[in-house]
Amino acid sequence: EVQLVQSGSEVKKPGESLKISCNTSGYKFINYWVGWVRQMPGKGLEWMGIIYPGDSDTRYGPSFQGQVTISVDKSISTAYLQWSSLKASDTAVYYCARVGRDGYIQRSAFDIWGRGTMITVSS
Amino acid sequence: EIVLTQSSGTLSLSPGERATLSCRASQSVSSNYLAWYQQKPGQAPRLLIYRASTRATGIPDRFSGSGSGTDFTLTISRLEPEDFAMYYCHHYSGSPPYSFGQGTKLEIK
After folding, report:
1. For residue range A37-47, what is the model confidence (pLDDT) as tens digits?
2. Substitution target from B49, B92, B95, B99 for chain A, most A beta carbons within 10 A
3. How are beta strands B63-68 and B71-76 bridged, if at all?
4. Which of B1, B35, B102 sits opposite A109 (nearest CB)?
């Protein structure tokens, strides 16, 4: 069974750093892109970025470029999302999701999702 | 960057009725690389439809997708109580970045 297990909720102060994780299992990690999606309280889904574990090719959404870093550790089939300096506006639920494959197409829809990590940034 | 607009913010219907949700793209979505997701409160989104019209694994056949180019539709043929939720479209055409529509809330009338 394909699973994406995310790290637990965090409460942080503005200016602090944070790295959250998404541990995958049940498939060959290096062969599928993995992405991150933000959902601010009461709002819709926002596409943050995706990474290909095979070569760490990473693409960011324009609102997130330079604001977060997406990375992977192939040895433990885990993807990460990190911030160097959190802001109150980073308060949200963050989902990781596997990018499916569709025939020869390497980047299809997000087919398997983690349960989300709630990040609260408050002084 | 393609912008997706879901025209109905909220759709109020009764169980048993037919739901039609729309998603319009600011430019053509190549190869119909458009997906639909369902999200219930407190849950992660669930993939319903990809490539505009292909149902994901385990999705009931009352859900169907259609459209091409810039106009796409998700249809739920006969609403069940568990279908009342948020629905998002998402494009993944061309090179990233990709994007989501702002969502449509399907509520019980």
Report:
1. 999 999 999 99
2. B92
3. antiparallel
4. B35
